[in-house]
Each structure stands twice: as C-alpha cells, then as structure tokens.
Design a protein that fits this description.
- The protein is built from 1 helix and 27 strands.
- It is mostly beta strands and 321 residues long.
- The two termini are 27 Å apart.
Length: 321
C-alpha cells in the first residue's frame, strides 16, 4: 500500500512537470471540417466525442475513421460541453435549448434527461425532466457518477441532478447576481456568472465565474470561498488571490486535484494549485508556436493526458506526453 502511494505521488509530480515543459499537439484541426469545438469526452475505446457550439454538431472521432457525425436529426442549439459516466452515458449541455441531453453509447440513442426547453426556474427537488433551466452552460460529473452538476448561468445557480433519484437541487447561488462572502452558505449566496463547475476527489466543488474573473470553491460543508482571481481581468500569475483571469470559460480537475482553467479571453490555459494556492500559466500556444485563440474546453483523461478545445482556431489539441 505504501509503495502504491509513493508511486502515485511520483506519477502526479511527473505529469505536473510534463505539463509545464511539453507542447500541445494537434489532434483534430480545421482541415477536417471541425468548427468551433467547445467540449470533448472519451469512451473506453479511445473514441473522442466532440460538441461544437456555433456549428451545432456532435461528432465522434477516432484515428482510424476520423470525424463521424452523430445525432443529425437532433436540433442542437449552442452545445457547450460533454461528460461521460463510466458505464457509457454521455451527457450534453444543449445550452441555448435549455436542455440536458444524453447519448447512450450502446444504442446510439439521444434523449432529453433534463429541462423542458423553456427558460426559467421552478424550485428544488423537481424531477429533472420537469425542471426549468436557463442556459445550462457547462456540466460535469461527480467522481462517483452520482451527481450531474450544471452551471445554470442565467439562473445564477450551480445545480445538480441526483442521478439516483433524478431530481434537481441547488448547490450554490440564490438567483441574485453578486459576489458571495467567504464562508457563507453557498446555496444562500449570490453568484456572478457561474460558467464552469467540477468536483475534486475530496468533495470540493469548484465554480468558475466568467464576468467575475474568479475561481470559487464550495467545501463539503456547503460553505463557499473565493480561491483565485481579483475580480478584475488581467493575466498575471502568482499567489492565487492576486493572480489574473479574464473571462474564464471551463475547468477540469487534474490527477493531483489541481484545477485546469480555460482562461478564454486571456487565450491561455492556466492551473490553480490548491496546496500552494497559486495560479500558473501552462500553455499559450499550440503546434508550430501558433497562439491559442479563446480556448473553451479542457479535459484530463485518467492517464494524465490533457486535451484543449482551442475553440476559435477550430482545433483540438493534446499534451504530447
């Protein structure tokens, strides 16, 4: 057991070093027909699922077959991102349609699992298919796949579907726009543009604030704290509460529980280290020293590979290990 723990620590340290030294390599680019990708998710069979925001297309990509269109009969409207359960359910935030959809990998069938299509808010504990949403912009799963988190941006709430009961509850936000006080109860506090959400292995749920240019965390006891960003847009790295974010768009959790941030308006990929309480820039460029352009999606696979949706360059990049 001790040797396994030491190995895990060394692996995380190695991956962190690689992240800081390696270059992003092209996986899928504009020559393939890809347009404005915002989110990716992966199957157990090395298949990559891709959601386009402006293109309103859902794709499956493999090295052997390239891009294959899925759900051509579905009227997607401004998809933002995807996430996948271990048993092959792929959830899709169909943002402008005010819906959460689900693709069943086994059957290929796409169904509506959250929202009615009507914008609004109709309370707590509502069945997911009866719940009103308002631009459900980013989604993610808890590590045990029991909760589907929703950054319900126009409702100014972070909500979740309890996937065991199929009912919707609020984790953070009270519907009022504002900056929450540190240590306040998250579900009674205001929120400012909750744009991304992700839970780490310790039960901390991170919330990205787009117009607030900040990263916040809801602790397991339900209290909320600002952990990074000054509230004003800039790009400086350093101590997290003095460091800069500018219209950040998406987050994911790395193997060491650090938070990877798509800092879109700074055209950067950054990392928040919760132990050191720092922000550092990981990448500002892709292959051939080409600058990133408004990256929106980030995803870390179980082997530590980092994927980046370089959205306005119409390409998907990965960390070349």
């Amino acid at each position: 057991m001790r040797s396994q723990k030491v190995f895990s620590i060394l692996l995380v340290a190695l991956l962190a070093a690689l992240h800081s030294q390696a270059e992003l390599a092209l996986v899928v680019g504009p020559d393939s027909g890809l347009f404005n990708p915002f989110g990716v998710a992966f199957s157990d069979k090395e298949e990559m699922y891709i959601a386009e925001y402006e293109g309103d297309r859902l794709w499956k990509f493999t090295e052997a077959r390239g891009l294959e269109r899925l759900g051509e009969d579905i009227p997607f409207n401004g998809m933002h991102n995807l996430c996948r359960t271990k048993d092959g359910r792929i959830y899709i935030s169909d943002t402008r349609a005010n819906l959460i959809r689900m693709l069943d990998e086994r059957t290929g069938k796409i169904s509506i699992v959250g929202g009615t299509g009507k914008e609004g808010y109709n309370g707590e504990g509502v069945k997911a298919e009866d719940a009103l949403l308002a631009d459900p912009i980013s989604i993610s799963l808890s590590p045990d796949d029991s909760r589907l988190y929703i950054a319900d941006i126009r409702n100014r709430r972070v909500r979740y579907i309890d996937l065991n009961t199929n009912r919707v509850y609020t984790l953070a936000g009270n519907g009022v726009m504002g900056v929450p006080d540190d240590g306040a109860q998250a579900n009674r506090s205001p929120l400012l543009d909750p744009r991304g959400v992700a839970e780490d292995s310790k039960g901390n749920v991170y919330i990205l604030s787009r117009r607030g240019h900040a990263l916040r965390v809801v602790k397991p006891d339900g209290k909320i704290f600002t952990v990074a960003g000054t509230g004003s847009p800039h790009k400086a790295d350093g101590p997290a509460l003095m460091a800069g974010l500018n219209g950040p768009k998406h987050i994911c959790i790395d193997l060491d529980d650090s938070v990877i941030i798509a800092d879109a308006e700074n055209h950067l990929i950054k990392r928040y280290d919760p132990d050191r309480k720092t922000i550092e820039t990981l990448f500002d460029r892709g292959p051939g020293n080409s600058p990133l352009r408004r990256p929106h999606g980030v995803w870390v696979r179980e082997d530590g590979t980092l994927y980046v949706c370089d959205s306005y360059n119409d390409r998907i990049l990965k960390l070349e290990l």
